[in-house]
Amino acid sequence: MASDTPPPPEGGTDTSTAPSTLEGAPKDGAPPVRIAKDGAAPAQPTTARFVEVQESEEFGELRRTYRSFAFPLTVAFIAWYLLYVLLSNYAGDFMGTKLFGNINVALVLGLAQFATTFLIAWIYSRHAARQLDPKAEAIKSRMEADA
Protein backbone atom coordinates (compact mmCIF):
# COMPACT_ATOMS: atom_id res chain seq x y z
CA MET A 1 0.00 0.00 0.00
CA ALA A 2 1.47 3.38 -1.05
CA SER A 3 1.73 6.17 1.47
CA ASP A 4 1.86 9.95 1.00
CA THR A 5 4.48 10.33 3.72
CA PRO A 6 8.18 10.22 2.86
CA PRO A 7 10.20 7.20 3.98
CA PRO A 8 12.09 7.46 7.27
CA PRO A 9 15.71 8.62 7.12
CA GLU A 10 18.34 5.99 6.49
CA GLY A 11 19.44 4.11 9.57
CA GLY A 12 16.37 4.62 11.71
CA THR A 13 12.75 5.54 12.00
CA ASP A 14 11.25 8.99 11.80
CA THR A 15 10.13 9.98 15.28
CA SER A 16 9.73 13.71 14.63
CA THR A 17 6.39 15.35 15.29
CA ALA A 18 7.24 18.70 13.67
CA PRO A 19 4.54 19.90 11.25
CA SER A 20 7.05 20.88 8.56
CA THR A 21 10.60 19.63 8.22
CA LEU A 22 13.55 20.30 5.99
CA GLU A 23 14.84 17.03 4.65
CA GLY A 24 18.59 16.50 4.35
CA ALA A 25 20.25 17.18 1.01
CA PRO A 26 19.91 14.29 -1.43
CA LYS A 27 23.07 12.36 -2.25
CA ASP A 28 23.28 13.88 -5.73
CA GLY A 29 23.95 17.32 -4.26
CA ALA A 30 20.50 18.76 -5.01
CA PRO A 31 19.15 21.29 -2.52
CA PRO A 32 17.07 20.03 0.41
CA VAL A 33 13.34 19.64 -0.19
CA ARG A 34 10.85 21.39 2.09
CA ILE A 35 8.13 18.98 3.10
CA ALA A 36 4.64 20.44 3.56
CA LYS A 37 2.53 19.76 6.65
CA ASP A 38 0.61 17.06 4.83
CA GLY A 39 3.88 15.27 3.99
CA ALA A 40 3.87 16.08 0.28
CA ALA A 41 6.62 18.04 -1.42
CA PRO A 42 5.39 21.32 -2.95
CA ALA A 43 4.82 21.43 -6.69
CA GLN A 44 7.79 22.69 -8.68
CA PRO A 45 7.51 25.11 -11.63
CA THR A 46 7.77 23.50 -15.03
CA THR A 47 10.68 23.98 -17.39
CA ALA A 48 8.41 26.05 -19.62
CA ARG A 49 7.63 28.34 -16.66
CA PHE A 50 11.34 28.80 -15.93
CA VAL A 51 11.97 29.74 -19.57
CA GLU A 52 8.98 32.10 -19.53
CA VAL A 53 10.29 33.88 -16.44
CA GLN A 54 13.82 33.99 -17.84
CA GLU A 55 12.53 35.76 -20.95
CA SER A 56 10.34 38.18 -18.96
CA GLU A 57 11.04 41.91 -18.73
CA GLU A 58 11.22 41.68 -14.93
CA PHE A 59 14.01 39.07 -15.05
CA GLY A 60 15.78 41.11 -17.73
CA GLU A 61 15.66 44.13 -15.41
CA LEU A 62 17.15 42.03 -12.60
CA ARG A 63 20.03 40.96 -14.87
CA ARG A 64 20.60 44.55 -16.06
CA THR A 65 20.68 45.79 -12.46
CA TYR A 66 23.26 43.15 -11.56
CA ARG A 67 25.40 43.66 -14.65
CA SER A 68 25.35 47.46 -14.47
CA PHE A 69 26.86 47.16 -11.01
CA ALA A 70 29.14 44.13 -11.25
CA PHE A 71 30.81 44.61 -14.62
CA PRO A 72 32.04 48.22 -14.17
CA LEU A 73 33.23 47.48 -10.65
CA THR A 74 35.06 44.37 -11.84
CA VAL A 75 36.74 46.26 -14.69
CA ALA A 76 37.73 49.08 -12.34
CA PHE A 77 39.25 46.67 -9.81
CA ILE A 78 41.17 44.75 -12.47
CA ALA A 79 42.52 48.05 -13.86
CA TRP A 80 43.55 49.12 -10.35
CA TYR A 81 45.26 45.76 -9.77
CA LEU A 82 47.09 45.89 -13.11
CA LEU A 83 48.21 49.45 -12.37
CA TYR A 84 49.73 48.19 -9.13
CA VAL A 85 51.50 45.32 -10.94
CA LEU A 86 52.80 47.60 -13.70
CA LEU A 87 54.02 50.18 -11.21
CA SER A 88 55.77 47.42 -9.26
CA ASN A 89 57.51 46.18 -12.39
CA TYR A 90 58.32 49.40 -14.22
CA ALA A 91 58.33 52.19 -11.62
CA GLY A 92 60.57 50.76 -8.94
CA ASP A 93 61.91 54.16 -7.93
CA PHE A 94 58.40 55.54 -7.43
CA MET A 95 57.20 52.45 -5.55
CA GLY A 96 60.31 52.57 -3.34
CA THR A 97 59.64 56.16 -2.30
CA LYS A 98 59.53 56.27 1.49
CA LEU A 99 56.48 57.97 2.90
CA PHE A 100 57.43 57.74 6.59
CA GLY A 101 59.77 55.44 8.44
CA ASN A 102 60.09 52.16 6.53
CA ILE A 103 56.66 52.59 4.89
CA ASN A 104 56.93 53.11 1.15
CA VAL A 105 54.44 53.65 -1.69
CA ALA A 106 54.49 49.95 -2.68
CA LEU A 107 53.43 48.83 0.80
CA VAL A 108 50.63 51.39 0.99
CA LEU A 109 49.30 50.50 -2.46
CA GLY A 110 49.61 46.77 -1.72
CA LEU A 111 47.60 47.12 1.49
CA ALA A 112 45.12 49.28 -0.40
CA GLN A 113 44.49 46.26 -2.66
CA PHE A 114 43.20 44.33 0.35
CA ALA A 115 41.16 47.29 1.59
CA THR A 116 39.65 47.70 -1.88
CA THR A 117 38.66 44.03 -1.99
CA PHE A 118 36.80 44.25 1.32
CA LEU A 119 35.24 47.58 0.35
CA ILE A 120 33.92 46.13 -2.91
CA ALA A 121 32.48 43.11 -1.08
CA TRP A 122 30.72 45.38 1.41
CA ILE A 123 29.38 47.69 -1.31
CA TYR A 124 28.14 44.71 -3.32
CA SER A 125 26.46 43.23 -0.25
CA ARG A 126 24.56 46.48 0.32
CA HIS A 127 23.65 46.75 -3.37
CA ALA A 128 22.39 43.17 -3.47
CA ALA A 129 20.30 43.62 -0.32
CA ARG A 130 18.72 46.84 -1.59
CA GLN A 131 18.42 46.28 -5.33
CA LEU A 132 18.79 42.61 -6.30
CA ASP A 133 17.29 40.59 -3.46
CA PRO A 134 13.83 42.26 -3.47
CA LYS A 135 13.49 41.76 -7.24
CA ALA A 136 14.71 38.16 -7.06
CA GLU A 137 12.41 37.40 -4.12
CA ALA A 138 9.40 38.80 -6.02
CA ILE A 139 10.17 36.57 -9.00
CA LYS A 140 10.73 33.54 -6.75
CA SER A 141 7.49 34.12 -4.83
CA ARG A 142 5.47 34.36 -8.03
CA MET A 143 7.02 31.20 -9.40
CA GLU A 144 6.33 29.27 -6.21
CA ALA A 145 2.76 30.57 -6.06
CA ASP A 146 2.11 29.57 -9.69
CA ALA A 147 3.56 26.06 -9.28
Structural account:
The structure is a single chain. The chain has 147 residues and is mainly α. The protein is 60% helix and 6% strand. The protein is built from 4 helices and 4 strands, in the order E-E-H-H-H-E-E-H. Strands 1-2 form a two-stranded antiparallel ribbon. Strand 3 (98-100) and strand 4 form a beta hairpin. Helix 2 runs antiparallel to helix 4. The longest helix has 42 residues, at 105-146. The radius of gyration is 26 Å and the shape is elongated. Residues 16-22 have low confidence and may be disordered.
Compact description:
This protein is mainly α and 147 residues long. Helices cover 60% and strands 6% of the residues. The chain has helices at residues 47-54, 57-90, 92-95, 105-146; strands at residues 21-22, 34-35, 98-100, 103-104.
Write the layout of secondary structure elements.
Elements: E1 21-22, E2 34-35, H1 47-54, H2 57-90, H3 92-95, E3 98-100, E4 103-104, H4 105-146
Helix pairs in contact: 2-4
- The helical percent reads 55-70%
Mean pLDDT: 81
Main beta sheet, described? 2 strands, antiparallel
Contiguous low-pLDDT stretches (5 residues minimum) are 16-22
Tell me the strand percentage band. Answer: 5-15%
Compute the number of helices.
Answer: 4
Strand order of the largest sheet: 1-2
Element-by-element helix/strand order: EEHHHEEH
Keywords:
single chain, mainly alpha
